[in-house]
From TrEMBL:
Upper classification of the organism: Eukaryota, Metazoa, Chordata, Craniata, Vertebrata
Annotated stretches, region: Disordered: 340-408
UniProt name for this protein: Striatin interacting protein 1
Naturally occurring in which organism (per UniProt): Paramormyrops kingsleyae
GO CC, any one term: cytosol
Span of the signal peptide: none
Amino acid sequence: MRIRHLWRNLARCAESATVSMSKMDVVGGGGGGGGGLIANNKQRAMIPNKSRGEFTRNQRKDSEGFSEAPDLEFEYGDAEKWAAELSELYSYTEGPEFLLNRKCFTEDFRIHVADKKWTELSLAEHRAHAMRLLDSLEVTARERRLKVARAILYMAQGTFGECESEAEVQHWMRYNVFLLLEVGTFSALVELLNMEIDNSAACTSAVRKPAISLADSTDLRVLLNIMYLMVETIQQEVLADSPEWRTARDTFRTELGSPLYNNEPISVMLFGMVTKFCSGHAPHFPMKKVLLLLWKTILFTLGGFEQLQQIKVRKREDLALPPLPEDSIRVVLTMRAASPPASASDLIEQQQKRARREHKALIKQDNLDAFNEKDPYKADDTREDEDDSDDNDNSLEPETFPLERDEVMPPPIPHPPCERVSFPKGLPWAPKVREKDIEHFLESSRSKFIGYTLGSDTDTVVGLPTPIHESIRTLKQHKYVSIAEIQIAKEEEFQKTPLSGGEEEVEMCSIELLYQGILPNLPQYMIALLKILLAAAPTSKAKTDSINILADVLPEEMPTTVLQSMKLGVDVNRHKEIIVKAISAILLLLLKHFKLNHIYQFEYMAQHLVFANCIPLILKFFNQNIMSYITAKNSISVLDFPHCVVHELPELTAESLEAGDNNQFCWRNLFSCINLLRILNKLTKWKHSRTMMLVVFKSAPILKRALKVKQAMMQLYVLKLLKVQTKYLGRQWRKSNMKTMSAIYQKVRHRLNDDWAYGNDLDARPWDFQAEECALRANIERFNARRYDKSQGNPDFLPVDNCLQSVLGQRVELPEEFQMNYDLWLEREVFSKPISWEELLQ
């Protein structure tokens, strides 16, 4: 009876685990790899149910067994390898246009050069032909202009028709792109792009169309393709580059970040395209290409993560601050991933093995009745009941993970001895302490031992016991003053003393110019980016009122065969993944650069992201089977550029499409996940009101599922987000998640007097969080008004010129109407009125 009862309990556990896992699949939307992710229900029906089911099954199969999966060999950086970044510019639907570009170039080239290939010409002949193409771009006929643009695009693509290998294509790409830059092609392309953006006829036609396809954005796509290839190719630094190319690169970087194009940086123009698309006035804009170009422009002009670290070191030196305790990038690279929590299937399997072993032991006993009286299962049943009651008591986290507890963790699996990388012993990060933390510690110590406080005085220790002296010495030894604290203190001084404070010296670098350019419309830009991110997220359901981000991927004629449907399904999923990658990289780069340039620029952007519901949006993104998303195989390597233009294409089959590539993970999806986690960290750090949003939206179980990805950097940012809300989750949550608490202790930086694990911090009490956001908003508005809105200055603080000659000598701009009617004004106001000169002179 007891044995039968045990097996019944195990079966019930297995059934409930299966139900909960199926619910999780429904909530998560099945990850990022469903076979039929098309724009709406009608288009989704184009893909047969069989292929959709097979894709889902395969991705679920790929994600199984992650508990014992090896660490992901992922190297985080500014972007993926150059070849991969080039291939992601084109959707697979654009494949036939490669030959069309080649045809346009060849027809024009043969008119001027009859008996030679492009690769056989001299530099002077190359330059002459590039100049001819550039002159032809200025024709008024649209068809002729498009043909010339396609010929230039073929040059930027490396004149692949005359190349034997992918390496040769990439060599000629670099050569041709620097040649096009030298003759001034980029400026001409910007002018044409401006003209296309303002093309009201194309916008009106696209708005009226029921379904927008690839054909509606042809002109824009060709221009954006050339511009992207130029930016992406020029920013790739190679040791063998000539001095002329290095100089051209530096000049181009400066021009891109300066307001040379239409009196604004090119990034501002691209942001304008994003908002125009989201407003519904230009639904034909190829948004993936716009976002990719915007990302690469920001990355090129402002610099990537290594440049950010260098700027940070230089700024700390300029402010006479001590050097950074470590290089955060290098510390993260040396970290190892922690083992993820065991899954429900692992637990059930362990219980079944244990039950089988005990069952065998029972058979060997002589007296089963004696066993029944002894009842060895009673203790186990009681413990399980207690665990169940504990889980039910946890109201903050409905999806508990009792599988992490020591008594149910599976034993470690022995691995064969292999050569291991040596990792540093001890904690990876040096501890940090803020000035505010030292003040709080001294305040509490003085009130406890002496009975009075001294405000912000951190030096007077009279009357305090010796251990407190040692504690203060240790805290000051690890005190860290950030650049942001210095900037906030300076801003407070400027606000207090507007007259005696003097003029602030603002360095007009690329990031400052960009902030000035996007400041008037920054809220709209953030809302537009998040709208597109929501539409591209794999957990989003297709809605009639959502924006259509597939304008540059859907063909004119929808697929008619299963193979075409599968190919389009892969293309659409890949398209969405690339959009998520670009937006996450844009937001993270801007936040990091703004934070270094001035903390209130960062806070302005961060606050508008929070107001636009960025926090729940990112949590919604992670509320899926994250392993399926990271291991999704939404790419067809034989169709990627430049492979598809150099090699003969094999015949595609359903099996080859379904198999995908052999990579352990999808680089762009893991890159996107890490970026989104870093953005979430940036938004919530030291902001208790936003941390409470993480708690209110029940982010803890969502984030814990993300720990299943065995990649150290991703786990670090997940653990940081769990750490900041631990004090709000209650004792029961901490008791049930000791493995996670241990991982936080091992991997996340320590604040010496931060009670994150026990919830005794005064700041953790959730009162008046709205006042915190309102005070921050007021500080931001005062900063923007003081530095950028000169018209709003207080007239009482403006200097007055008392010299008559100086005032009369000033040049006054008169209105055009007044100048036209000047004679009439003289007659009416001067000549026709008598003037008493004696009174006037007195």
